[in-house]
Amino acid sequence: MHAWEIMSKPVVHVTMSTPVREATAALVDHGFAAMPVVNRENRVVGIFTEADALRCGSGFNGVVADFMTSPVEVVYMDADVDHVARQMLGDRLRCVPVVEDGVLVGVVSRRDLLRRLISSDDSIAGRLRSVLTDYSGSGERWNVRVADGVALISGQFEDEAERRVIALLARTVAGVERAELLNQAPA
Fold first, then answer.
1. N or C, where is the chain less crowded by C-beta within 10 Å?
2. Which CATH number fits the domain that encloses residue 88?
3. Nearest alpha-carbon partner for 129 in 170, 158, 184, 163
4. What is the pTM of this model?
5. Which PROSITE patterns does this chain map to (predicted)?
């Protein structure tokens, strides 16, 4: 697998002349730990991180060029994902800009790397568990497994009305096509 297959795009980025306050707001608003800094030709010249923003202090005075981390490590679109993961772990990087001919085309984050390790059914099951925990107040009442969009939910149900509610709640989760309620733990 290659970087271009898992990278996030389009890329939220800033320029060296972006005010620190604006760049920090972008980090917070998008939930990013870091984002690339580019020049006029859209070439990566640095990275602006949460740590860089914290170094600015509460005044947030200045521009990104005054606080960004530079030089920055980049990877090419055809970089092997396992190599990218080792690079990120070894250098304790939260994200790595992806370039083509030196121009920013994407970003590989830790989350992008983790996404490839789980199936979409795993993600759906996690969201469904969260919905059921919100409903019941306990994450241990039902066991959940999802296979090809079919949610298998087992555990103790108060009555038939609760079974119907649980089945309806399950179908509100994106990706659940059908819900099956079982009296024993799914295999």
1. C
2. 3.10.580.10
3. 170
4. 0.65
5. BON, CBS
